[in-house]
Amino acid sequence: MFQLSAEQYDVLYSVKDYEREAHLLREHLSHLDPSLHTVLDVACGTGAHDEHLCRYYEVDGLDLKSEFVETARRRNQRGRYHVADMRDFRLDRLYDTVICLFGSIGYARSRADLVRTLTCCREHLTPRGVVVIEPWLTPDAFESPAIHRHHSREGEVTVVRMSRSTRRQDGADCVSVLDIHYLVGTPEGIDYSTETHELGLFTHRQMESALTEAGFCDIHHDRQGLAGRGLYTARVGRSNS
User: What are phi and psi of 230, to 5 degrees?
Assistant: First the structure.
């Protein structure tokens, strides 16, 4: 889970073009099925995609960090947002589409938890529903060991991030480990913090097999996707509808 505040998180990713990605996703969904109307955003973060998607769809969301959920509620005041773990959530509504973007599916970490997460997604879809997954990196694409740096500024807040990326093998699961260091500067001073994120590195074959095991069919992989990391779409299998 991110230790940054919602404001600091949004500053860090202020260079990300959420509006463009939401537009591309809308085009993608319209091509799949123009009748899709309701969307659940799993691991929605601060709701930056939803702020644009809610112009076209009824959008709800969930995230593990309560402060992010509060920010998402302010961005999309018509939506219902929940503090929940994507690996095990139970809501009282079914949706036409469930999305999980920005590589957040990697936080499932293991293949077993990947199947659990995708099964939860399928259980919240209508019989003709569609799941859309923007994956984290594959084992081949992940650089290790590697150093990455990034900084962003909005108004009087500057966020600098430097991370060291390594990988670990947990039995059959390959896990990326990101040791992240932050400097957050404001007129009041500079704060320093660290955190470690662990995300599963899943191959294309593992993603497809997990989607199948979770009860999906008609699996399609777009190599480019919304931002260059690819995009998986799949429909609820007939035996689960």
Answer: 95, 175
Mean pLDDT for all residues in the chain = 97
Q: How many CB atoms lie within 10 A of CB 169?
A: 10
pLDDT at 238: 75
Residue 136 has pLDDT above 90, yes or no: yes
The answer to whether 186 and 153 are in contact (CB under 8 A) is no
For residues 160 and 151, the answer to whether their CB atoms sit within 8 Å is: yes
Residue 3 binned pLDDT confidence (cut-offs 50, 70, 90): confident
**How many CB atoms are located within 10 Å of the residue 150 CB?**
12
Q: Which domains does the chain have, with CATH numbers?
A: 6-138+203-236 (3.40.50.150), 146-200 (2.20.130.10)
Contacts of residue 120, defined as CB under 8 A and 6 or more positions apart, other chains included, come to 42, 86, 87, 88, 89
Averaged pLDDT, 21-31: 97
What is the pLDDT confidence band of residue 146, given thresholds at 50, 70 and 90? very high
Sign of torsion over alpha carbons 91, 204, 32, 69 = positive
CA–CA–CA angle 104, 107, 109 (5° rounding):
140
Q: pTM higher than 0.90, yes or no? A: yes
> Which token pair is 137?
């990196």
Residue recorded with tokens 């879809």:
125
